[in-house]
Specification:
Blueprint (H helix, E strand, L loop, with lengths): L4 H20 L4 H22 L5 H30 L9 H5 L5 H5 L3 H12 L2 E5 L2 E4 L4 H6 L6 E2 L1 H6 L16 H13 L3 H23 L5 E3 H18 L5 H4 L4 H18 L1 H7 L7 H16 L1 H6 L7 H5 L12 H32 L1 H15 L12 H6 L2 H13 L9 E2 L8 E5 L4 E5 L4 E3 L2 H5 L5 E2 L8 H4 L6 E2 L17 H18 E5 L5 H7 L1 E4 L1 E4 L4 E6 L3
Parallel strand pairs: 2-8
Antiparallel strand pairs: 1-2, 3-5, 4-14, 5-8, 6-7, 9-10, 11-14, 12-13
The protein binds protoporphyrin IX containing FE.
InterPro entries: Cyt_P450, Cyt_P450_CS, Cyt_P450_E_grp-I, Cyt_P450_sf, Cytochrome_P450_monoxygenase
Family: Belongs to the cytochrome P450 family.
GO molecular function: heme binding; iron ion binding; monooxygenase activity; oxidoreductase activity, acting on paired donors, with incorporation or reduction of molecular oxygen
């Protein structure tokens, strides 16, 4: 028994009807699978009742023919629609990306999305179609309109995919899409990073910095994986300031298993975020970061258990959870257990990979540019006196921020060259039929009309490396551009956005700055550093830096430290 021509035509017709339906009500992966399953079982039932003399093998062959006709027609119809009829059809970009976001998977697996987006803008211009319904806008004028407080855009489907299908009141702040909910929660978070809160973290920050220096001291003369020590430092800081409990990676001098798992899983999050269908499938697979989640949940449980001691004043250390366990005074919003749990993971992830990447890369660049290192060191001596590198010398946070211009410039320049969150942050324009968004582009002095329900991003790396924003030599490490921007050919301050922008921008920015300045100033004072024998910095930059939403490295930055003579 083979299907008749009429059967095949019916399959093709059904595919076209499905496409019409799918175009209006974008289905989830389980819905698509359910349609296939129900359709197939119904066909088998019909075949069995109308052709009882044929064998089950014949019915299955017949079903396979019809399924192939259905799938091929559905995919062809979707492809033709996306290329020739879609509301974004007039925007330039590679056809592969207009057809499907699956085309991003090889690039994301290689961790090269920021470089690829930058090269797409060089080829196609400032507005590029980078997905069936997605545009990348490489223009400083679009930042406020897409990410700013007045923007009608909200977080895009990447964030839904990244939260792995958790229900409402179970999400972390970062993946909370509803703007009202985000605002209430953000106010609670903001309290944890207020001036007073940051002051209360200073002593702990100094203590962790001392611990790091002591451990590095013990390793002078031998080889150290400098980037990993920066990670140990940042993870310990976040566990201590997050939950008043140390992961103690610095003490152990190695990663614990949950943190290692987390690092491995970041790439998966990047790929799954690009292709939401994949994330639906991944949801039924074993959770790769279960150990990490159990670990942060356990830390949270212990922390909540200690709340009573803190209230009694037996433990007066303040931490970020002191604030997250409170409520928003304006709306009375109080976090659920699942939200607190998700935020426990967020504290660790958001605060660690980012800060550690900047520290690793700034030390890398200072070793590569000894003249700049000397400049920073001289300034530290001028500000703090010649004995500032003495042990236990507590550097003043305000002086580090306000008087150490070169120290701040090298950190800024590192974040310009290697923003730790390197790809554009995804937002979605409103979906109502009359909700087109008109963006005013600065460089081309033109406007672009963005159709409703378009996914948008402003590509951070492309902006940071654009000669129209930073000149001369936008790809070179030139911290002097931040020392005196007025002397630069081009310095577009608004195009520098390593911490994101607007109401969803980085809540931990000030803490990150305190941590980075303190660690770097102390490190520079105490150690001379060289690349380890055989380490090739040029090759390292070319081959070992990957974007997995936050920056990761595929090999250690090998250095040899020596203690500076007093
Ligand atoms: C150099 C260090 C850091 C950089 C470059 C950085 C960068 C960013 C960026 C670009 C965003 C926006 C992400 C988005 O819109 O999807 C963000 C958000 C966030 N960051 Fe940071 N970050 C850093 C350090 C920290 C630290 C130390 C913390 C402390 C916990 C932190 C906590 C957060 C949180 C909670 C969010 C989500 C904010 C929200 O959705 O309202 N970050 N960060």
């Amino acid at each position: 028994m083979l299907p008749t021509l009429l059967d095949v035509q019916a399959s093709v017709g059904l595919a076209l009807v499905s496409h019409l339906f799918y175009a209006n009500y974008e289905p989830s992966a389980p819905t698509v699978l359910a349609v296939y399953l129900v359709g197939s079982l119904s066909y088998l039932f019909l075949a069995a009742t109308s052709h009882p003399s044929s064998s089950p093998f014949d019915w299955i062959v017949s079903l396979a023919v019809l399924q192939t006709a259905y799938t091929a027609s559905l995919l062809s119809s979707i492809a033709a629609y996306r290329l020739f009829f879609h509301r974004l059809r007039s925007f330039k970009g590679p056809s592969s990306l207009a057809l499907s976001k699956w085309a991003w998977v090889p690039t994301d697996l290689a961790g090269q999305r920021p470089a690829k987006v930058t090269s797409l803008h060089a080829t196609y211009g400032d507005v590029v179609r980078v997905g069936p319904r997605e545009l990348s806008i490489n223009d400083v004028g679009a930042i406020n309109q897409i990410l700013g407080g007045q923007s009608a855009c909200r977080k895009g489907p990447w964030y839904t995919a990244a939260h792995g299908g958790k229900g409402p009141r179970s999400l972390s702040l970062h993946v909370t899409i509803d703007t009202g909910d985000h605002r209430s929660r953000r106010r609670i978070w903001d309290a944890g990073f207020s001036v007073a809160a940051l002051r209360s973290y200073e002593a702990q920050l100094r203590q962790t910095t001392r611990k790091l220096l002591t451990q590095l001291d013990a390793r002078t003369g031998g080889e150290v994986a400098m980037d990993q020590w920066c990670q140990f430092y940042a993870f310990d800081v976040m566990s201590e300031l997050g939950f008043s409990r140390s992961f103690d990676l610095i003490g152990k001098g190695s990663f614990s298993k949950p943190i290692e798992l987390l690092e491995g899983a970041m790439q998966a999050i990047m790929v799954l975020g690009a292709v939401p269908y994949l994330s639906a499938v991944a949801r039924v697979a074993p959770n790769p970061i279960k150990d990490f989640e159990d670990f942060t949940e356990e830390a949270l449980r212990e922390r909540v258990g200690r709340s009573a001691e803190k209230k009694r004043g037996d433990d007066d250390r303040a931490d970020i959870f002191t604030h997250l366990l409170g409520e928003d005074k304006a709306t009375g919003w109080k976090h659920t257990w699942n939200e607190l749990n998700a935020d426990a993971g967020l504290v660790v992830v958001a605060g660690s990979d980012t800060t550690s990447s900047v520290l690793a890369m700034v030390i890398f660049h200072l070793v590569k540019h000894p003249d700049v290192l000397e400049r920073v060191r001289k300034e530290l001596h001028d500000v703090f006196g010649h004995d500032y590198e003495e042990e236990e010398h507590d550097l003043d946070f305000d002086k580090l921020a306000k008087e150490c211009v070169w120290l701040n410039a090298v950190l800024n320049e590192t974040m310009r060259l290697y923003p730790p969150v390197a790809s554009g942050l995804q937002r979605e324009s409103p979906s109502g039929a009359s909700s087109s968004l008109v963006l005013n582009l600065k460089h081309s002095a033109s406007t672009v009309v963005v159709p409703p329900a378009t996914i948008l991003s402003v590509p951070t790396t492309a902006l940071h490396h654009d000669p129209r924003n930073f000149s001369p030599s936008p790809d070179a490490f030139r911290p002097e551009r931040f020392v005196d921007p007025s002397k630069e050919e081009r310095f577009e301050a608004a195009a520098f956005m390593p911490f994101g922008y607007g109401p969803t921008g980085c809540v931990g920015k000030k803490l990150a700055w305190m941590e980075m300045r303190l660690m770097l100033a102390n490190f520079i004072g105490r150690f001379d550093a060289n690349f380890a024998p055989g380490f090739d910095p040029e090759k390292y930059v070319r081959e070992c830096i990957k974007d997995t939403f936050t920056m990761t490295r595929t090999a250690p930055i090998r250095m040899v430290l020596s203690r500076r003579a007093r």
